[in-house]
Design brief:
The chain is of the alpha/beta class and 367 residues long. The chain has 16 helices and 13 strands. The N and C termini lie close together (11 Å).
Length: 367
Amino acid sequence: MKIIISGGGTGGHIYPAIAIAQEIKDRLPQVQILYVGTREGMENKIVPQAGFDFKTIDITGINRSSLIKASKSLAKMPRSFFQGWEVVRNYRPDIVIGTGGYVSFPVVLAATFLDCKTYIHEQNALPGLANRNLARRVDCVMLTFPEARKHLNARVIKLTGLPVRKDILTVDAVRARHKLGLKEDKFTLLVFGGSRGAMSINQAMVAAMPRLQHEDIQIIWLTGENGYEEIKSSLADKVDMQDIKCNLQIHPYMFNMNEALAVSNLAVCRAGASTLCELAIMGLPAILVPYPYAAENHQEMNARALLQKNAAAMVIDEFLDGDTVYQRVKELMSNPHRLEQMSNNMRQQARPNALKDIVDIILLHTK
């Protein structure tokens, strides 16, 4: 059996694709898998490192900042479609899977004209432009958020959830707490903005720390690798690090992120689909700060889906400051009943069997 998987641009499209590829390979060791991405995207480094064959096509996302830039992006579409056509026709796959991002569009579109099964997975509550256009043509659309269904016209739609890393499912909170030097009876706040960080969240935390330092809490603050030293310097100007009541751990990045999630009572973070699925598995309530420049503002749609279910709070990035962070954190710390309700509601959104369900659907007709 031969399978093509395509998705790129951001880790939110790439890591689920790799998880699906690895699960298929585990079940069918003889399967041949080709990943199609772009030379410029993150997938160019991540996919080969994961051990999968990798091929590129020339396409860029639609730049909406100006009509001229958007026109240049659109002008590449016909060429990228024929490149996708050539890849699919020459490889002759039995199945083609798209996990979103502009690169998946010409590949999956070409496959719908050829003799193979086609599937797409949509991570967000508001489907991306590529998946909205592909939905009506593919054999099956799989969703992370039920709210995405109303935006799609498709033959078959399945609610599967989003694959999460296996270490999220198996982490031991007691061991993690001991390893991180944290106390079980103290409130733990986790603040992060992804591997590159989120400047607005970091700046708000710097402004909030003169008051948070007096609280009897534990804080794990992951600044991201960009600007870590600058944030530490700004913090030192506001807070005497030798004379603070709270237990503050500040790092640029944590490879054992699963442990940080497992020991925390509340998170302050962005609202990417992968992050939200990991929060749901852990039952970890959050103050979500959607990234304002995400395509079609889909992070805000993700956050609002959880806000409506009382599983999270939300602050729009534009209105985030130190006072807001402190007040929201203090409010939830002081209301353990509400925090427990949010935790239970967040856990109800979890789909720990997402990867199994997705691959079951993909391989349903292959036996």
